[in-house]
Protein 1
Amino acid sequence: MAKQKLKRVDLIFSKDCTCKDILAVALKRPKEEIVKDLIDSGLKGRGGAGFPTGLKWKMAMEEKSNKKYVICNADEGEPGTFKDREILDRVGLKVLGGMALASYVTGAREGFIYLRSEYKFLIPKLENLLEKFHVWMDEFDLDFKVNLFIGGGAYVCGEETSLIESMEGKRGEPRNKPPYPTNQGYLGKPTVVNNVETLVYALMIMYIGSEKFKSMGFEGSTGSKLFSVSGDTPKAGIYELELGMTLEQFVKEFGDGDAKAVQVGGASGFCVPRKRFKETHIGYQGGLEGFSLPTGGSMMIFNSSRSMYNVLHNYLDFFEEESCGQCTPCRVGCQQLLKGVEAVKRGEKSQKYLDDLLRLSDTMKLTAKCGLGQSVANSFSSIVENFREEMIY
Amino acid sequence: MAEKMIKLTIDGKVISVPEGTTLFEAAKLEKVKIPTLCYHQDLCVAGNCRVCVVEVEGWRVLPAACATPAMEGMVVFTNSPKVRRARKDVLALLVSEHSTQCTTCYRSTNCELQELAAEYNIDNEIYLNLLKDKTFTVDDSSWAIEKDETKCIRCQRCVRTCAELQKVNALDVIKKGADMKIATFFDTVMSDVVCTNCGQCINRCPTGALTERRYIDEIWEAIGDPNKHVAVQTAPAVRVALGEMLGYEPGVRVTGKMAAALKHLGFDSVLDTDFSADLTIMEEGHELIDRLKRKLVDGEDVALPMFTSCSPGWIKFIEHAYPDYLDHLSTCKSPQQMFGALLKTYYADKKKIDPKSIVSVSVMPCSAKKYEAKRIEMNDSGMQDVDYVMTTRELGHMIRQSGVNFKELKDGNFDKFMGDSTGAAVIFGATGGVMEAALRTAYEVLTGREVPFDGLKITPVRGMEGIREASIKLENVLPDFSFLEGIEVKVAIAHGLTNAAQIMDNLVIGESPYHFVEVMACPGGCIGGGGQPIPTNAEIRKARAAAIYDEDEKKVLRKSHENPDVQRIYKDFLGKPLGHKSHELLHTKYTRRERV
Amino acid sequence: MRKRESAIRAAVQKHGKERKNLLPVLHEVKQINNYLSRSDISEIAAEMGLSSAHVYGVASFYHFLDLEARGQNIIWVCKTISCYMKGSNDIMLALEDALKIKLGETTSDGKFTLLQTNCIGWCHKGPAMLINDHPYTDLTPEKVQNIIDEYYKK
């Protein structure tokens, strides 16, 4: 396969077209065709989990139910991610357009934007957009109403079933699956939960066509996505890039010339050391030789002045607080990893204890109840494996 | 409609199970034991302890067997190296935030975590001890229930019990992450919240995090004091469950051995709560007739239906949750408290014992009775009527401590005088039993004839259905009760407070057709009480209930009004039901309580 | 007291008694005193037909549904990695200095409470903080002093 290049893309924030024009065309098409387009495009969820969007909509579409819901997941809490805020701030109508499309396809009459509490300052702006949007819905004769739902401040609510629990007035704890939300979601009804960015891409695929979208990226990881770049970089910010670039290309563009590691996917993601930059691609698993790492968009660059122990400690401290606490591996495991690296650093435990903790992190990945719980130990294992000496001395 | 069947492979064996069966259930059908901690037969599936993980071919993760439905073609391994390693780690994690002072734990040898930790050879030292950094507390504020956070493994069985079975919601999950724990409203002490002391949480707690407040040492102390006359009463449901503490299978009745053991322990009098259960029927039955008369003849505004008041968990529940309906409760004290009040008056007098030297002990299937004994209303003898209440479990411990070989004991008898019982009293221990006993007596009082049921078995009120209804038509009543002629008496039975709440909610909206309702706080009635041996589940409760009904059938006397002790006390002491003395000693009143 | 009770009733009325409206109700009631008190929680529970312990359990799950008394303004300093790398500790020190309180405390005039929180989504412009709902980014110790001064002028 040809070497992927780092290529900038301009879809999410592009001003080429209006959301209304795209909807005007799309909402006249048979919904099966729309689903087919999305499936063909290969679009996967941009929140991090990477479930095929077209398939999700298809499953909800095929459910027989008097009520269905569309929920926009704007509970962006992964450390290092800030793209959803930017999207809602700059092109909120496109998000609503994506929701309208989902409503049209699935038959949902009610939608919600689950907005994280930290983004409350966006409420006035979003309320204005909603007013405008609901007028459009009348014009399009689409019976669809969107409400804002404000989260309470809990990282785990980014997990779709926790988000639903939270909307039902409960603690935001992940559910057992199956049933999946497309079958039994909000209030027990078929529900589509999509990330902010995913919804915009769904809309933009209607505009550019699935072929064009698919022509970007690589097999299994088509299209582009937004990257939130932070850390030791002179160019911190949001960038829309084609999927498939290597970390070497990424660091060349965004690093400060001294990058020793990149954390891909936030605190629940993987830390890649310099020696692996070349062989590591950004995209969903499989499809390319070497490693390919998925991300919700968080890209944190660390230069050689950084202590990877401090970085890991910060992540573990985050999870020790943000685990919902429901299941044993995540609740107790996170505490053990945190206290464990502290004990090794202080010399109270021998460096061999790191191996015990690595084995524990495997168990956490295998046995935690939800997708987040299964990934909380990723940063631990990837940092300890690659920067072991920094954990000890 | 034929059930859809799912074919899957478990540990190499192809099996077929109905759609919707979980992997845990499927394995159980194959007699494969998968360890569990948060799972409990009586409760909804939580899937949070992760001890029951299994390996499924082609799956990236190990799913929880309790929460994963069998799917067509699945290939499941319940004991692969991957599974064993994962389970071991999960158990080690639980142990790392658990107080491992097993030698001093009340639940030692009856603890599910201890059992699994031993089974999987968990090394206590592998992970750091997290308890050191926690501010965990032991809450012993309640007269009935102790809550020890250092032993809690967050399985949430108690929370589900309190919400699903009991609708009390005293306990809930609070905070998250490392701070997540089980607590009351704002972590208030247990004595000051809506807890009904029913103890169902204790029965389902896999560890020693929730236990009853114990009085074993105090009771031994009293027995050893030559200046004390220590009298013990035992509730009907104890005799069909005590055996489980002492090596018997559920459902084995040990009435005679229990009486013998109590004497062996050194109690000065070994008496039977059955006596006051029969007395309760006399008082409560007449109270019902009186209420009906005041309503039908005198046109008074009388609260109906009348609810039974034997279950102290139910009493505290209604006081908190439905305080506007306290006048529906029978004013009768529970059998335990009737017994207590009479022990230090009537009994002391007859036996020429200084009531001040009497130590009144009761053995109950119940934790709420501990609280009931401490209520300020329960001092009608001039002092605390019942001094110590112990559970079936505590008695089991005492018998073990005493060194007696329980299984080898020859059957003994209760002492005469407040030791007689009837089959009607015995069945108090099972849901529907009070109702059945009341109907046997009331029907006869009103008509002069036995209840029209074969062998006195009023089957419509029996069973394990959450709410049961029955009616009995009164015809050819005795002249004194002509106002009841032709009336169809409607009754209902509820057990488990969630079911009780349903009856209450119907009453609140004015849709309660009943005259008389029996409510027991615990699922199954007292045989499933919060003081009974652990574990509990539907089969065990059924076995205990069967043993109760069997005892009833074998009794010569099966109607409360035929109890010779009861007849004597009315003749010698009380006069008549609802008489002056009865009101003084056997009836009580209730208190409105807050909702938090 | 009266006012608070009727405000709770009004909040429940506005959003509806169904359990799904619990978070909106909690958010709204929190605004009355900038935190949720014991009696707030138990009254919300009573109004919505839920158990008090349960409503407490739900509220305690979420960072921004404060269950302890707070000042008029709550400062949440982001402590997560990107802000930490850009010096959030110095920002915390500057705030402690400017307000003469420690992390977790409230100023004696009741004007500010100083707290930390996890990632608030301004990683490219760290260090960042929220004062109530409003984000402040690219902070420096000098900038922090000015922001606090501005609040005191208001």
Note: Chain A touches chain B at residues 154, 156, 171, 176, 178, 319-329, 331-336, 339-340, 343, 349, 356, 359-360, 363, 365-369, 374 (CB under 8 Å).
Protein 2
Amino acid sequence: MNKQLIFGSLIVILLCFIAILAPVISFHNPYEQNLSLRLKPPSLKHPFGTDELGKDVFSRMVYATRVSLSVGFISISIAIIIGTILGLISGYYGGTVDNIIMRLVDIMLCFPTFFLILLVIAFVKPNIYNIMIVIGLTSWPSLTRYVRAEVLKIKNLEFVLSAKLAGFSTARILFVHILPNVLVPVVVTFSLGIASAILTESALSFLGLGVQPPEPSWGNILTSGKDYIYIAWWLSLFPGLAIFITVVGFNLLGEGLRIYLSPKEK
Amino acid sequence: MCIKSCRAKLQLYIEVKSEKDYNFMGHDLVLNIENLEVSFEVKDIPYFVLRSVNLELYTKQKIAIVGESGSGKTTLANSILLFNDKKITTYFGNINFYPIKKCDELTHQVIPIIFTEEIEKEDRTEFDIHTLDEKFMSHVRGFHISMIFQDPFTALNPVLRVGEQVGEVIKIHNQKLNKKEIYDKVIELFTLVHLPEPEVMYKKYPHQLSGGQIQRVCVATAIANRPEILIADEPTTALDASLKESILSLLSEMTEKFDTSLILITHDISIIKNYVDYIYILYAGEVLESGPTKQIFYNPLHPYTQFLFSCYVDKTKKGQKLPSLPYEIPDLSDQDFIFEKCIFLNRCQKKIKRCEEEKPEVYSVKGQKVKCFLYEK
């Protein structure tokens, strides 16, 4: 176990707890407005202060953890499923199939992903589910390449040949014999991908194209903060820190896993 | 199982042979290769990797295919399983397989794995090659014919327990068995191949086993479904000298026990003497000599075989230099050479003028078959 892995997993576990226990931790209703308490600085009653409508920032951020984590997990799960299956097929069959899938990957990688997402969001309704799907559908290509490379490495090893010779079906060979051997890049990409998905979601919300208020999200708390940055620094600082810590946590976890799972480090 | 879906297609080829066709020296014929030609097309150039190979295999018979690197040993083994790269391979000739397993509906029918059919068309004869389709072949593979590979260290999946891997092979061909029955079968197999503490072995991962133990697990996998034919592709090459003998004796023990026939592929003629009944000497895709082991060892006829035995290290050659042949294996895409002249021509020390003019036939000398003009009657 290395330091990155321990530190990263601690942060991630903490975040998961916050998300699960959101109603217990937050002692205010995140949707409740109180105009008499507009833009109050941090105090004991409101640890992170209040926003321009008098809503408690701390409670909103705790609930926003749920949004961020679920966007991260679900969108990357979509990407992992697509990326792994295409990578397996591409690496295993080779030839024309491989060519088609790899050119598709090249095309996907050519687009600046963020602008592709912006373009799609311009046409569909910006809500949390669409965001998940769009992020998922745009972040699989690099994983496909990783998986394909791993499959190419092991598909000519004798245990794959003997599996073929034992009369196993292609699907069985792919998912029972090859998949467990290519899981390392998948697991690492999962963790690193969550970090970038959370960043993307925050950025979209910041631009007003992601999670729509009054639904809380770190990104849209930041947006409201930018108008009052000279008089209410807490509106920008705390969501920014939250995004920072989360992304660092998932990146450390991914990096730690990569080191932990690579055979050379053992 | 896939037999049923393939039945209709297979019916076209099946011809039931009479009882006497099978028997030879009290044993049944299980595999008959007639005039097999295999060529690979790489960048539009055809390479004739195997030419007019004839081979017969009977139940419980153990044969060895001996040859140097590039002589087509592995291609021959792969052809029996139709396992050569489909895109580049062209077959010609017949490979007939005669299943004898009692439990199978196909017993005593001919399964032509590769099958050439003559078609007469306006005064000329053409040939049509059929090969068995992949679905049916996956039933034959592992159930009727199984194979052991050279390198034990990549032969098992590193992320699955060895017992599960063996069990999987049993399960795929016997869908009715439940988990407990399969576990018992695997333990029984591990005991048969002399693995210590089979219950402990079942739960181990391949990296926890030694090379010899892994090769024993591979043997267990190969005999799991009691196949008619066991093909061992250089099973001892990657092993220590001390382990070679024990793996070979294990293979030969298994063939005795399960009425299996063994095809042993090797480049090392010195180690097989006590383990096989019949030897085929393969050189550049042609069988130059074949015969019972004892005769080949005591009276090698073909100059190439004689040369192979002169490389055999023993006490009498102490201090002497081992012989080596000039030149290399001929270019297998050079049709003028390989179809018109003796294939061993440029390296032969006993060549006569005739060797350059035509190709020698196969001559029978006291049970040995040899492809050399020196033995023409």
Note: Chain B has one domain: 2-144+227-375.
